[in-house]
Amino acid sequence: DAGVIQSPRHEVTEMGQEVTLRCKPISGHDYLFWYRQTMMRGLELLIYFNNNVPIDDSGMPEDRFSAKMPNASFSTLKIQPSEPRDSAVYFCASTTSEAGELFFGEGSRLTVL
Amino acid sequence: SQQGEEDPQALSIQEGENATMNCSYKTSINNLQWYRQNSGRGLVHLILIRSNEREKHSGRLRVTLDTSKKSSSLLITASRAADTASYFCATYGNKLVFGAGTILRVKS
How far apart are CA B75 and CA B60, in angstroms? Predict the structure, then answer.
């Protein structure tokens, strides 16, 4: 199995630029989660989807952040405009059960200069 | 905000020793999960314990859950250098919330 696939693995951009992070969940998983990991705040849940529908986006920090899931095999997390405080590792995870184990991708490390 | 709080923040042991990590949480939960994260990698699920269970085993891992004290512990027996990683507890109430993690270093 390919697992959860995230791209890019590393992204360095300048403040004000648009950033798009991508995620392909495991086939057959109908829940998809976006988390952000920083040293200061740990792992934070940003948003999650069930059957491509956003269920809880209360963790999305600001209107600069948006997430979409146009189909069962693809999701994006977009930051526009990016700021240095957005620097973090962004993880995508998928699962078949909201309360069950999550399968994480390897993460996208974002650095905003 | 983080639900689970791990203790200790960091732990350094010799290969072959046992490692115990603790997790405390604040509100009622449906289940509690433990994950491992190697440096620069994604999290890997280790074990899930439901709120009506008290103990669970998986290979060298033993997890206990005390809902009256709102706490859990993860025991890794006969540790190996490859166990060096960060370990996170995550509690599921209506969503999965992760603690800050324990950094485990196993010296060979």
Answer: 8
Average pLDDT score, chain A: 96
Q: Which residues pair with A112 in a beta bridge?
A: A13
CA distance B86 to A18: 31
A45 within 8 A of B95, measured Cβ to Cβ: yes
Q: Which of B97, B100, B101 sits opposite A45 (nearest CB)?
A: B97
Using a CB-CB distance cutoff of 8 angstroms, which residues of chain A are in contact with residue B35? 102
In angstroms, what separates the C-alpha of B31 from chain A's closest C-alpha? Answer: 8
Please list the pLDDT of chain B residue by residue as tens digits (108 residues). Answer: 446 788 899 999 999 999 999 999 999 999 999 999 999 999 999 999 999 999 999 999 999 999 999 999 999 999 999 999 999 999 999 889 999 999 999 999
Query: What percent of chain A has a predicted confidence (pLDDT) above 70?
Result: 99
State the smallest CA–CA distance between residue A55 and chain B in angstroms.
11
Nearest C-alpha in B relative to A55: B95
Q: How far is CA A82 from CA A64, A96, A112, B44, B80, in A?
A: 8, 32, 7, 29, 41
Would you call A101 and B48 a contact, using CB atoms and an 8 Å cutoff?
yes
The answer to whether B41 contacts chain A (CB < 8 Å) is: yes
Q: Which residue of B has its CA nearest to A109?
A: B40
Q: Collapsing DSSP states into helix, strand and coil, what is residue A47?
A: strand
